[in-house]
Amino acid sequence: MELVDRYVHEVGRHLPRRSRNDIETELRSTIEDTLEGYAEKQGSDVDEEMVVEVLKEFGAPQQVAASYRTGKQYLVGPELFPIFKIVLIVFVSVTTALFLVTNVMAFGQPDDILQRVWELLANSVPQFISTLVGALGIIVIVFTILERVLPPLDWEDEEEDWDPASLPKVDDPAQVNRLELILGITFTVVLLVLFNFLPQRIGIYFYNDADGWSFISVLQEGYRTLMPWINVWGIATILLRTFVLRQGRWQTGTRLAEIGVNVLGLFVLYQIFTSGTFFGLNREWSSGVYPTGIVAVFEDLKPIFSWIFKGLAVFILIVSLIEIVKQVYNLLKGRADVAWRAG
Fold it and tell me: What is this structure's pTM?
């Protein structure tokens, strides 16, 4: 039956190679059994018209192949796509802002400001695109993994089984903010990738006509001594937030774990603040040849940059303290609500 062979072959073209032969054999057997049943019921031999009728009932080859495929066939599905767009907007905005600041720093005092702007854009856009593509690649990888790890939201039979009493309270402390958790996971992954694999790209880029792109690193060699702690904190943050996303609600254990991770983060920030060897303008790690004026300016600004980075660490430390207080409050409030319902 040539038509059956063609049909089975077309279905197989849309199937994974590792399971194609088994599915083709199963499908062919099912079609032949169906044809035999039709022929017996109609008291006639199998003919081309009967084959066409049976294959129409089976459906288009692509649809049949889709019914055999398991797993998700997309990188970012509809459930995470709205959050994916927000994360993209945040990272594109931050990257663009850094790009603009870098170019502003490279202006100097040109005679023709419009000509200088055009030259800087022409020479820096490739660098900007490269950085942007790298950041987008990391984000896509993070969301692709989350798409496979997180359970799907249960929308099936919503109209029949949905109970208004199941609506969470407006200020339910156990409710999960998916955007906040996923944004935190993505930011942490980007941070770990930069510090572990691309430390030479953390710094200040500028362009000059004579030497092209130049770079001054803002990481001193001593930053490596704190990387084990940073990695432990980052990995713990990623694993915990992914687990909470899978659970769908905060629980006492995860609240306590979050407090512990934040305390670890405070310890890391304190070490950064007090070490004095983490951030700072590092000539040895830098590349390019700098005009004398720029070198002098950066040397003068070195103490200021050091205090800026320390101030940033203090700001993050304060935010982390507030987050710990918030977690403790939500933990106590959640336990109070449980006790009230039990009473």
Answer: 0.65
Which one, of 341, 343, 267, 279, lies nearest residue 310 by Cα? Answer: 279
311-330 confidence digits (pLDDT tens):
766 777 787 778 778 777 77
Structure tokens at 35: 């044809």
- Dihedral sign computed on CA atoms, order 188, 132, 278, 320: negative
> What is the DSSP secondary structure assignment for residue 248, as one 8-state letter?
S
Query: How many CB atoms are closer than 10 A to CB 299?
Result: 11
Decide: 146 and 245 in contact? Cβ < 8 Å. Answer: yes
Q: Is 70 left (phi over 0), alpha (psi -120 to 50) or beta?
A: beta
| The total number of residues written for the chain in this structure | 343
**Cβ contacts of 204-208, under 8 Å, gap ≥ 24:** 204/102, 204/105, 204/298, 205/102, 205/124, 205/127, 206/102, 206/105, 206/106, 206/294, 207/103, 207/106, 207/119, 207/120, 207/123, 207/124, 208/106, 208/290, 208/291, 208/294
